[in-house]
Amino acid sequence: MFTLLSGLFKYLFRKDEFFILILGLDNAGKTTFLEQTKTQFNRNYKGLSLSKITTTVGLNIGKIDIGSVRLMFWDLGGQEELQSLWHKYYAESHGVIFVVDATDETRLEDSWRAFDEMIESEALVGVPILVLANKQDIQGCLKVDQIKSLFNQSAAKIGKRDCKIRGASALTGDGVNESIDWIVQCVERNVYRRPTNTGDTS
């Protein structure tokens, strides 16, 4: 009887687990976005001070639960020498959030090149991608349409996957909920890569 009840409990409370990569150049605001996401979706979470976050060297990990969905985030360093390690995580990922610093016009083309190289990987075929035009709270930043005009050069490589460019401010939280809602919808309906089921409700 206990085994039956235990199995029923695990079935009712199981979560579909999806792994989401957070990529982009250094200082784009990837870790700030991750911390803001954990703050908004994890009750009582008290993490890093957003104003004191420094450049990531290596990997930051985060987790949020939304209903029956669990998102596991891998926030990877964006320095040029670390970009060569991104591909090691592609095969296990279900979605990508590519963060662009909308205040740094001088490196916008570098950001697009990193994005363009990323989507060429066969390991990411069919994986939904959200391009986040970050730092929209700062006066004089590039707007979504300006960033879209450059990133649209990669349109032919995107294929049938879901892909969207939207604005946000990781620092203030504007656009974070909407971004996460979009990525959840995309990974849930994606037929190319199915979730990992877990009975862990913690």
From TrEMBL:
The record's subunit annotation is: Interacts with SYS1.
CDD domains attached here? Arfrp1
**Protein name per UniProt:** ADP-ribosylation factor-related protein 1
- Signal peptide range in chain numbering: none
Q: What job does this protein perform?
A: Trans-Golgi-associated GTPase that regulates protein sorting. Controls the targeting of ARL1 and its effector to the trans-Golgi. Required for the lipidation of chylomicrons in the intestine and required for VLDL lipidation in the liver.
Write out the entry's keywords from A to Z: GTP-binding, Nucleotide-binding
Q: Which NCBIfam families match?
A: small_GTP
* Pfam assignment, any one: Arf
Q: Which SUPFAM superfamilies match?
A: P-loop containing nucleoside triphosphate hydrolases
- InterPro entries attached here? P-loop_NTPase, Small_GTP-bd, Small_GTPase_ARF, Small_GTPase_ARF/SAR
